[in-house]
């Protein structure tokens, strides 16, 4: 876990139960879930294997270790997980070097949270080398800290990434709003005890207790998040 700007501690917006906002990266803030799948297809094609489109929903949002193992087993490819991880990260770096499109509403939401000094963390299953590249485009000033998938013993869907982010900010997970785009990330955040706003990217996500589903980040602003926390207390 690496701090990108000084943490803002437990400071809370006046009159709000909201203490912090924790955001996923791929498919939530940046439109890159498709990039990962394209790279996986490309890498396995180079190994002589074709990926079934139905596998996309199996690997979306998951840590590279889980996705990589699944694809190796599913295809029977003769490659070690460590070697595959390097190929996938290299391929993804090349993709985002050409373009890094933001999800609709992402830039506006980050600017609003920063303007109101809401402690904010980036929590991703991607590795540190990828997060740092994306942060340079998103703007590291928008995040008090970031948590990478290769920096925690157990990544999503385990709650550890979100628990680590809350601890790093010095806030109560139950008073954090998490924004996620996949069932894997939602499971991680809910297991940590956070309130979740789901913005589905590849696979549908249904509403549930302490979980609100929206179609776009354009529906989410600070007023929305504060109201959500108040309603769910």
UniProtKB/TrEMBL annotation:
Keywords tagged on the record: Hydrolase
Transmembrane domains' residue ranges: none
GO-annotated molecular function: hydrolase activity
SUPFAM superfamilies found in the cross-reference section: HAD-like
CDD domains: HAD_BPGM-like
Domain of life of the native organism: Bacteria
NCBIfam families: HAD-SF-IA-v3 (TIGR01509)
Designated name of the protein: HAD family hydrolase
Organism encoding this protein: Streptomyces viridiviolaceus
